């Protein structure tokens, strides 16, 4: 409910009470206040522990992004900025992904045939991607992805 509408209802109730009416009568005439759900707004994607590098690229520029040798680079759509947030993962560890929704993209430029695996909140396996150099793997849906392991 808008703040101005709530003030108007409150003033109407106060006016009736001052004019000799009851607050119960004012409450009957005032429309019911219904709580509205807060709008869901995605925040800026994040990763913990911090990857070797996190940067932003234009919405259509990940194909040209240089994922350096030995790295896996994950592109997550950044709703507030309308661009991609790219995480360059170098260390062989488990990264916790946050604020990642919808489709994403991955370049696995690791050496030695290392695979990038993605897991859900209950450690269930969701996706695996082999090495492809600068080739782009499409990640169908990052919404259920909780962790990423690039090794």
Automatic annotation (TrEMBL):
Keywords: Signal
Residues annotated as signal peptide: 1-27
Record protein name field: Peptidase inhibitor family I36 protein
Natural source organism: Kribbella albertanoniae
Origin organism lineage: Bacteria, Bacillati, Actinomycetota, Actinomycetes, Propionibacteriales
